[in-house]
Amino acid sequence: MAGTDEAPVIIEPERTAGSCVIWLHGLGADGHDFESIIPGLGLPEPLGVRFVLPHAPVRPVTINGGMPMRAWFDLRQPNLDHNPDLSGIEQSVAGLRALLAQQEATGIPRERIVLAGFSQGGVVALETALSMHDKPAGVLALSTWLAQPVSDAHGLCVFMAHGEHDHVVPPALAIASRDMLRTLGAEVEWHNYPMAHAVHPTEIADIGAWLRARLT
Asked: Which pTM value belongs to this model?
């Protein structure tokens, strides 16, 4: 990804990979953050899903007093939809597009590649997919939001999940993002769970079911 030379965590299927999920972590985490939930997705081996889990670069984050940490872009204030770091987002979008192109170069077609992200990572996954004329298989947008208006989302399938008690990314912001995506033509499957800014066990099962549907 842009700004880091670290190789992503890659989890290969037992058979030759025929599909791929590129999964971006949230603020302050790293590429290992979602590694442990992959077995719980229950994906059948014939799907041949490769998981690519990149690490965000380390950068100062304004809302955390300028403390350096892994972040896909800067967060300037708690009001996430106000004055977003569009330059930082665009750098990470470029990095994600490069990762996607690498997977295409291995023989996996774009329509069998899912972009996934939690919180900040979800912002980048959505922005990347929306910027593409030929859409990927879909986007897993977990506990996240849409950072900037887009003109057209036709052809994009999105799984959105959010916690009812999320005090980091307010549910109202996620709902507004969902509604905007639908208005612009995206097919959005919405789920909410009794949790804060986290991942719920039921959510993991729902993600697995959605991935099976998108990649089968």
From this structure: 0.96
